[in-house]
Amino acid sequence: DLYRKVFVFRNDPSDAYVVLRAKLEQPLQNFTVCLRSYTDLTRPHSLFSYATKAQDNEILLFKPKPSEYRFYVGGKFVTFRVPEGRGDWEHVCASWESATGIAEFWLNGKPWPRKGLQRGYTVGAEAAILLGQEQDGFGGGFDVYNSFSGELADVYLWDVGLSPDKMRAAYQSLRLPPAVLAWKSLSYDVKGDVVVKPRLRE
């Protein structure tokens, strides 16, 4: 249970990462991924990387620069332009549904205009799920200049698209539906220089 705790990725650039173990029974037709990050990086960095043997960017949340997020599904991506952070925690949620190919992006509890991505696609279930690095192969192939440095918290993955109410609840750290990956019952392995610490502020 990592409630009120954070992963601190201490080095920049970094070869460290955290492996997450999810209980996925079947491929994903829909999903939502949420997390909170706190960093002063201005270079590109990966936040959440979900790779299968067939596709290294099966699901990827990537920040190429302070004013942009990229959301990948099955190797294709859409870009969401955002205001540059003011040196504070940023909470992001990205959801996707295969039937419509609609990609949703929420930043700090607010939805951005929806975009189209990979309609009819299915996300594979046999995955390597990593925080802090971007996979260019299954569970590896890292470029340290895409690594994350800073603090990560409140990481969740659901095998459904969350409703707007639940998206806002995730931002406010309220009660959430059962998740495939849940911060309050996370199964993880730390690889390299990552430290679990209490959160300094709300």
UniProtKB/TrEMBL annotation:
SUPFAM superfamilies: Concanavalin A-like lectins/glucanases. It is found in: Secreted. InterPro entries: ConA-like_dom_sf (IPR013320), Pentaxin_CS (IPR030476), Pentraxin_domain (IPR051005), PTX_dom (IPR001759). Gene3D superfamilies: 2.60.120.200. Disulfide bonds join 34-93. It holds the Pfam family Pentaxin. GO terms for molecular function: complement component C1q complex binding; metal ion binding. SMART domains: PTX (SM00159). Its cofactor is Ca(2+). Keywords: Acute phase, Calcium, Disulfide bond, Metal-binding, Secreted, Signal. It comes from the Eukaryota. One of its GO terms (biological process) is acute-phase response. Binds 2 calcium ions per subunit. Its main location: secreted. One of its GO terms (cellular component) is extracellular space. Belongs to the pentraxin family. Homopentamer. Pentaxin (or pentraxin) have a discoid arrangement of 5 non-covalently bound subunits. This is Pentraxin family member. It comes from Nyctibius bracteatus. The lineage of its organism: Eukaryota, Metazoa, Chordata, Craniata, Vertebrata.
